[in-house]
Design goal:
It is a single chain. This protein is mainly β and about 130 residues long. Helices cover about 5% and strands about 45% of the residues. Strands 2, 4, 5, 6, 9, 10 and 11 form a seven-stranded mixed sheet that branches. A four-stranded antiparallel sheet has the order 1-3-8-7, with no helix packed on it. A hairpin with a 4-residue loop joins strand 7 (about 70-75) and strand 8.
């Protein structure tokens, strides 16, 4: 059974940090672009970061650049999102998602075109809540 499971969310104070995990089962992440998305109440789902399948190319939304860092551990079939300097406006449910990419995405611009379109992704986790208090 194909499954993505997020973990690591929680309640933190402004300026705090978290490490979100996205563990895959039923398939291997090696040939997939993995994205982290978030959705706050009353807002559309937003792509915050993506990582290409095998060459380390990454993308970050402007709102999180310098504060969020995405990484993958293919041996553990897991993708991480390290988040620091959290702000109240980062409060949202965070989801990871995958889309097949047998060929590595060549550059950040191409990856951004994928990451800003959540409908491109076909497998989704259930989400993990991140709440940042001021």
């Amino acid at each position: 059974q194909v499954q993505l499971v997020e973990s690591g969310g929680g309640l933190v104070q402004s300026g705090g940090s978290l490490r979100l995990s996205c563990a895959a089962s039923g398939f291997t992440l090696d040939d997939y672009v993995i994205g982290w998305f978030r959705q706050a109440p009353g807002k559309e789902r937003e792509g915050v970061s993506c990582i290409s399948s095998s060459n380390g190319i990454t993308y970050y939304a402007d709102s999180v650049k310098g504060r969020f860092s995405i990484s993958r551990d293919n041996a553990k079939n897991t993708v991480y999102l390290h988040v620091i300097s959290l702000k109240p406006e980062d409060t949202a449910v965070y989801y990871c998602a995958s889309v097949p990419a047998p060929r590595p995405i060549k550059n950040t611009w191409l990856l951004s075109n994928i990451c800003v379109q959540p409908n491109t992704f076909n497998y989704w986790g259930q989400g993990t809540q991140v709440t940042v208090s001021s």
